[in-house]
Amino acid sequence: MTAEVIVDIAHSEVDKIFEYRAIEGVEEGSRVRVPFGKMTVDGYVMRLKEKSDFGDGRLKSVTSVIDRALTRECLELAKKIAARYHCPMALTLRLFLPAEMRRGAVRELFKNVAVYSGAPVAVRANAKAQAAALEFLREQKRCGYTELCEKFGAAAVRALAEKGAFTVEKERVSRTPMRDAGGEAAARTLTQAQRGAVERIKSSAKTVQLIHGVTGSGKTEIYLTLIAEALKEGKTAVFLVPEISLTPQMFSQLRARFGSAAAIMHSGLSAGEKFDEWHRLRTGEARIAIGARSAVFAPVENVGVIVIDEEHDGSYASETNPRYDTREIAKMRAEYNGCKLILGSATPSVETYLKATEGEYGLIELPERINKNPLPEMIVADMRREVRRGNNSPFSAALREELENCLESGNQAILFLNRRGFAQSVVCRECGKVIKCERCDVSLTYHSEENCLKCHMCGATYKMLSACPECGGVHLSYTGTGTQKVVGELKKLLPSARILRMDVDTTSGKEGHYKILKKFADHEADILVGTQMIAKGHDFPSVTLVGILDADMSLHFSDYRSGERTFQLVTPVSGRSGRAKEKGKVVLQTYDPENYILRFAMHYDYAAFFKHEVSLRKATAFPPFAKIVRVMVTGEEESKALEVLKPVYFSLKEVYDAHPQDFLFFNKMKSPVKKIQDKFRYQVLMRIRNERLLPEIYERALREKTRDVLVYVEENPANLS
Ligand code: ADP
Ligand code: ZN
Question: How many Å from the N-terminal Cα to the C-terminal Cα in the chain?
Fold first, then answer.
């Protein structure tokens, strides 16, 4: 037999099939070691066939078989993805394996176990430790080698081993993350609305189903029911949640319901944990893959349902090659498996909702909360009036009053703002210079706790400056309000309140989110202050007040989606309030109370928001009525990047000249952020009417990349910085 192999080297020069003579145990989907030039490298068997295209005599043989990592579906899917995003196969296949698994960086974890041999062993009378260890082994029969050494000392154990008192065996250990999460929970009896939704989804002929349900309408229970039914049919499930929000919480819920059948795939896990969870899914020991974006590639077979919660979330777009849209991949998988793809959101993306209203997707509306609790009352605080009254604190009078009431009645509050750090940026008041990162073209943020400046783009840390590096001026001022500053002001305002802060800085480290959220859920704090991470998903029954400190922030981004983003931000944050018995309140602080997006958000009026937004996008020919395509050219040397930009531009210009009617916009320029991590960034920006020309654009753009200059294509990029 001949094996068609993709070798795991990500240069485009070797993006082709190599043939090898198959050896015993080689199957389609096998991971193998193969000779390649002078080296031996990892490879993936894409296909087995009787005859080689070159004549069997010249073929080298596969060296060894590692495992059968890839399912038949993975192979099919990889081919589709590679073709769709013009991505080398070797790179595409990496999506399907935990990164650490390649090149043998992690494997199954084994521990050495000492197994009592029963052989007669002579121990000298004064070797007390040896005698005790021998006695222990005789009774226990087996014991972990390390434990044995800890108990009796390594020297004694080694001496016994030399005398043949025991043999050493390897035993597989499973590193299961959050083993103690959950407890046990039974399925709830569904409400009529939930039952109806489940039935409509199951009887619908459409693959993709959108559940548009207000926060607290019981979407999660619908997902869990569909997952349970898939398992009952002997199938598997994939459950995707946004990167930053609720993996641990959601996971404990699933653990409680499904026990060890649930496996977690999450970037915060250790390499070993990642591998073991992957392995449990691959072998079928676990049957539900839960995780962020990358879990869409989970190695489960015979999938019965795929769920994408908070489908509008930005984290579903990949920011590295291939730059896939998770919803698109999930749809391919649903079609392959003949199962349903469930998209859920309180604020669906305009694109998805449009497809649902046009009948391409099934649409289920859940307009009411489970407990029929009214949505929280919205109080709008006009911050212009506050400033006029001389209030320069981050809190309006209304918010202060509501905070006091809330804490007095023993409830909890969440304060939400859109930034982190103490202040947004540092400006020299003499020359006007904004202090920027040396490697990136973005302003630095002051962090008061560490008294330093940080770049939120690359993470670099700088010492606090005492003078402007440009003019030497010593009057540096801070603009904006960050989470640290809010916490500081809050402590002055409410000295007895217990305050927790949650943002990228306080949640680093394994399960960082989980710890903060758990503390808050256990009511060990009264107020949680945070950035978008606290916006969604969490269920805190005693939260009766939510304050949105700067509702207009994202309205001013120069991006066609800023309205949509603001709506998607304000609505779920508000949904955090009053989830249990007590009625909730939301204080929304804004400098622009007239703004239509905010008005729709205040009234939870998705329908009006959608209608307005769709007509605007249609009139201006923006997505989903057109597609924005950005070809990025980046490199450390500006001249080299420009050398590549030129042929990229001229090659694409040929497409434009041949089909001007398909283009709404075509130009080359510097990116708005012209340097990130020492790489200069140029772009060709296009807006096209349809996807007909997409393959040609990819093909022409990617052809020009060189060793030093990266070229990639983004479709409707999440940010145009
Ligand atoms: P969503 O995901 O739509 O925001 P959740 O699934 O979190 O809503 O449900 C909101 C609340 O209602 C949760 O506290 C949940 O435990 C509760 N809940 C959901 N379904 C039921 C049910 N069938 N019976 C009783 N309580 C339910
Ligand atoms: Zn930087």
Answer: 51
Q: Is 421 in the pocket of ligand 1 (CB under 6 A)?
A: no
Which of 211, 221, 311 best tests ligand 1's pocket when mutated (most atoms within 8 Å of CB)? 221
CATH of domain 192-366: 3.40.50.300
pLDDT at residue number 534: 66
Which residue minimizes the CA distance to atom 18 of ligand 1? 218
As a whole number of Å, the CA-based R_g of the chain is: 29
Say whether 633 sits in a helix, a strand or coil.
strand
Q: What is the mean pLDDT of residues 51-57?
A: 72
CA-angle at 315, arms to 609 and 280, nearest 5°: 130
Q: What is the pLDDT of residues 245-270, one digit of tens each?
A: 555 666 777 888 888 899 988 777 77
Residues 6+ apart with CB under 8 A from 488: 422, 448
> Checking phi first, is residue 390 left (phi over 0); if not, alpha (psi -120 to 50) or beta?
left
Q: Is 299 in the pocket of ligand 1 (CB under 6 A)?
A: no
Residue from 587, 601, 579 nearest 548 by CA: 587
**SS3 call for 217:** coil
Task: List pLDDT tens digits, range 139-173.
Answer: 888 888 888 888 888 888 888 888 888 888 877 66
Structure-derived torsion over alpha carbons of residues 422, 424, 425, 430, reported in degrees to the nearest 10: -90
- pLDDT band at 574, cuts 50/70/90? low
Please list all protein residues whose beta carbon sits less than 5 angstroms from ligand 2, which is an ion. Answer: 437, 439-440, 455, 457-458, 460
Higher pLDDT, 635 or 542: 635
Cβ(248)–Cβ(514) below 8 Å = yes
Compute the distance from residue 677 Cα to the ligand 2 centre, in Å: 6
C-alpha–C-alpha distance, residues 314 and 334, integer Å? 21
Average pLDDT of every residue of the chain: 85
Which amino acid, 667?
N
What are the residues facing 447 on neighbouring strands? 452
* Predicted confidence (pLDDT) per residue in 601-621, tens digit: 888 899 999 999 999 889 888
Cβ of 213 less than 6 Å from ligand 1: yes
Kindly give the number of the ligand 1 atom that is closest to the alpha carbon of 537: 4
- Positions of CATH 3.30.70.600 in the chain: 627-715
| pLDDT grade for 175, boundaries at 50, 70 and 90 | low
Considering the domain 2-102 in this protein, what is its CATH number?
3.40.1440.60
Where would I find the beta strands (DSSP E) of 244-302?
262-265, 288-291
538 falls in which pLDDT band (50, 70, 90)?
Answer: low
Q: Which of 246, 257, 343, 370 to mutate to test the pocket of ligand 1 (most atoms within 8 A of CB)?
A: 370
| Among the listed residues 605, 534, 545, 549, the one whose alpha carbon sits nearest the alpha carbon of residue 381 | 549
Task: List, by residue range, all CATH 3.40.50.300 domains of the chain.
Answer: 192-366, 377-420+482-617
